[in-house]
Amino acid sequence: MSSNMRREFASRDELIAYLRREFPQAAARSGEVSAIRGGRQEAEVRLQRIDPRRYAATRNYLNGAVTHLSPYIRYGVLSLAEVRDAALSRVRRPADAAKLVSELGWRDYWQRLYERLGDDVWRDQEPYKTGYRADEYAAELPDDIIEGRTGLACMDAFSRDLRSTGYLHNHARMWLASYVVHWRRVAWQAGARWFLEHLLDGDPASNNLSWQWVASTFSHKPYIFNRENLERFTDGVYCRTCPLYGRCDFEGTHEALNRRLFRDATDAGG
After folding, report:
1. Which residues contact 62 (CB under 8 A, 6 or more apart)?
2. CA–CA distance from 195 to each of 139, 167, 257 (Å)?
3. What pLDDT does 3 receive?
4. Integer angstrom CA distances of residue 270 from 117, 130, 171, 192, 221
5. Which one, of 67, 32, 48, 54, lies nearest residue 170 by Cα?
6. What contacts 56, CB < 8 A, 6 or more positions away?
7. Domains along the sequence of the chain with CATH
8. Residue 143: which H helix or E strand, with range?
9. Which of 120, 44, 139 is nearest to 86 (CA)?
10. How far apart are CA 126 and CA 48, in angstroms?
11. Conformation bin of residue 240: beta by default, left when phi > 0, alpha when psi is -120 to 50
12. Among candidates 94, 93, 69, which has minimal Cα distance to 83?
């Protein structure tokens, strides 16, 4: 790699070609290039579009009014304080921005934990609450998950989106992580490494500790979901086209799935 990286390019295509030459090993691993644009100018445009009230009401839906600011926060293009102030400036009452501001607080919390834990974010903070020992989880992610060919329309779409865009809605991240750890019984570390390889906003703090929350090694119970939950928050976009609809891995109540997935009858749920 050259010691002095170029900063000016005639076009985005020229920039992409240059980076592929400078980082051949990364280019060999994946030829995907996200359409998400970086830089302060793009960050400011997105910052002007945030709607804290709609965010609070719709953030759990895949088509909800999320901010898409996380990559810019991740690399310091925007500060948490800057986003907080922008959110507060767009509402009449501070309470109307409370949900968005609280999510910024969670990001700050993960970073403070990372400052204390360091590389220990890669270690189980607590035992699994699933009835399985850590050594009963596979160490490597199966190829069908990585390549998006599990046969489950939702999981395969999430896998493709992760690789092609470098972004996933937070709810999709939780569902995919839960599928990896609890349905496929793969160690959360394998999934966390996979996410960090592709996510533009990925960092070991929020990424790893969120995976541990899903896995139950940093929470009091494992996080699981069912088809009804996923269908509701995706407006059924995956279920409508899934050949496994009505007989997929996610059918049933949380209680039934809990009994099916875990040795201990923990009160897991969404």
Report:
1. 169, 171, 172, 233, 234, 235, 237
2. 15, 9, 25
3. 60
4. 27, 15, 10, 20, 10
5. 67
6. 96, 98, 99, 100
7. 7-35 (no CATH), 37-118 (1.25.40.80), 134-261 (1.10.579.10)
8. helix 143-146
9. 44
10. 41
11. alpha
12. 69
In contact, 80 and 73? CB cutoff 8 Å? yes
State how far the Cα of 204 lies from the Cα of 160, in Å rounded to an integer.
22
| Rounded Cα distance, 169 and 153, in Å | 16
Tens-place pLDDT, residues 189-241: 999 999 999 999 999 999 999 999 999 999 999 999 999 999 999 999 999 99
Q: Look at residues 161, 159, 164 and name the one whose alpha carbon lies nearest to residue 147.
A: 159
